[in-house]
Known about the structure:
Layout: E1 2-5, E2 11-14, E3 21-27, E4 38-45, E5 49-50, E6 57-66, E7 69-75, E8 78-84, E9 90-94, E10 98-103, E11 108-116, E12 120-127, E13 131-135, E14 140-145, E15 150-154, E16 160-162, E17 167-170, E18 178-182, E19 185-192
Antiparallel strand pairs: 1-17, 2-3, 3-4, 4-11, 5-10, 6-9, 6-11, 7-8, 7-10, 12-19, 13-18, 14-17, 14-19, 15-16, 15-18
Amino acid sequence: MLSIISPDQFKQIPWKNGKGVTTELAINDGGTLTNFEWRLSIASVVSDGEFSDFRGYWRNLVLISGEGISLQHTFKGETNTDHLTQLLQLSNFDGGSKTQGKLISGDINDLNIMTKTGKYRAKVSTYTEQKSILIKPCDLCFVYSITDKLTVKSATEKTQKLPAKHLLKISSPRLNAIAISGAMMIVIHLFKN
């Protein structure tokens, strides 16, 4: 089944650490801010600071607007840094890491894909240039474009246009492969463990 989730269906949720607000795009049925299996959200980062502790979750963070952010992760005594300076660059890290964000030049927005350890895992792919990709049958997939309207084609449903900043949800493993054409898009596959 294909469904389009529009921005007026997104929810504004306070950050877990209380230092900002997140736009929640989608969450598993019955999921809450403190207990979910998977969650997609957009955060506006307006100042340097520590990220919320999401121990027990894996995070995938994609830069979707702004000049960039450096993320310093400390986990189990080891520290590493990701520099996201280009749109659609991606950082993957354990939600239990002590993560410090330092803005490069002004505010940014990032798309977060979080999955509960042992329940789900995510494969996140980003495409900056015009491209046609084939999404094979999957249990649960999402597609999001930050600037371009995407074309969505399937053998069983009529061709659709996905406006920028809308979320496409694909939720049936029995669908035929779906062709997505466009640029500046993020494709998310969620797999049950």
